[in-house]
Design brief:
DNA-binding; HTH_MarR-typ (chains A, B); 3 strands; DNA-binding (chains A, B); mainly alpha; 3-stranded antiparallel sheet; 160 residues; 66% helix; 7 helices; homodimer
Chain lengths: 160, 160
DNA sequence: TACTTTTATGTAGTTAACTACATAACTTAT
DNA sequence: ATAAGTTATGTAGTTAACTACATAAAAGTA
């Protein structure tokens, strides 16, 4: 069956992007399940961020990874529940809650890094011979400068 | 604040793809709202598909646009509720339900097409000077041949 | 014809993101 | 020192996708 999204031209861009991302994430979940690791896609971002930066507050994480803060709360709560994060109220500013990797997380890291490195190589393979990452960076930048809404409305007004 | 996703190498690919797609979709919603049109992002796929092909069943649509059938049901139910689709039981095969554009949809189409064409031009602008669509097609193909899970597990096994 | 398998649709429950709002704690300015 | 504004976190509700299961109809087969 021919994929209709291919016939939508550039307007199909968003849909195809989402479809591809969703498929990759679903497959990532299956992978972790198959490997018997109680981890979810996305968690590696928090692991790597906190490993590099040490303890961080919810808002800092949110800004750093470009995700709305309630999403970060939901994500890190799950990681806490799984025992991978510690949470401490900041002494200087009692509003802030500082998150950090737990001992369990540090113990698990070597095995997880192995998986993530394999994942990295897998993606590198899939993207081989393309400049995908460069293009992705460029497009992220262009759409952050001027979003889809603004671009479309600008084009609409050119007509009238 | 520096975007940490950029520091994740190819492993950040999925996350960035999803983040970009989500942002574009959210912005699309805001756009329709601002334009005062009671349409949602994604609906244009159904509009254009049914306009080209005429009435289609749920499963046909699902296969054609690469979306799970319950998602198609949810999507088209909303469009029905908004009055853009008609639904008729198939006489030859009473399991099938045939969906088609309603009169209201056909009336609305010219205005919608104007918006979608502007959107198309907006995206073309944003992607200017890149071979994004070609690369996207290539990557879709590669990941459909061999998914993220399979690629990662293959890489993992190379080590041992 | 009757049994089995396949297909089409539908429903329920899960997920991960979002926005909008609420509240508490800090900071700034009068 | 108090009021006003800002910031950090949390909660509630919405969304759009998914998988897994349920059921009814059609098709194939013994």
């Amino acid at each position: 069956m021919k994929d209709f999204a291919l016939e939508l031209g550039c307007l199909g861009f968003t849909m195809r992007l989402k479809r591809l991302a969703d498929a990759l994430i679903q497959d990532g979940k299956r992978m972790y399940k198959e490997l018997g690791v109680d981890i979810e896609p996305n968690w590696y971002v928090i692991f790597r961020l906190l490993k590099r930066e040490g303890e961080m507050s919810v808002t800092e994480i949110s800004e750093r990874i470009g995700m709305a803060h309630p999403s970060v709360i939901a994500l890190t709560n799950k990681m806490m529940k799984a025992g991978y994060l510690s949470s401490n109220q900041c002494t200087d500013d009692s509003r802030r809650r500082l998150l950090n990797l737990s001992d369990k997380a540090l113990e698990a890291l070597p095995q997880l890094e192995e998986i993530w490195n394999a994942g990295e190589r897998g993606v590198i393979n899939a993207l081989e011979g393309t400049n995908t990452m460069e293009i992705l960076s460029l497009i992220e930048q262009r759409f952050s400068e001027k979003g889809f809404r603004e671009r479309t409305i600008e084009e609409l007004n050119k007509n009238s």
